[in-house]
Amino acid sequence: MTAEPDPRPEPVPLPGSPEPSGGGRPRVTCRMCGRPLRDRQARLWGLGVECRERLALRAAPAPGRWEVEQEALPGL
Fold it and tell me: Is the separation of the CB atoms in 3 and 19 below 8 Å?
């Protein structure tokens, strides 16, 4: 049994695009620590899970909502 050649043409890169380097996805690293990012969410944020958790701890908590006692507006 012989293998038939693939009938699809070989993909051609767009003019001005960089040369592919070994195939696969390009390496994406965390903007804070420089470690490689592995999951989709981390790639979208540009931050690893641990660095996103650290940033969440640094961020100020959302202010609570308190009822304010005030007099009714005149004329209502």
Answer: no
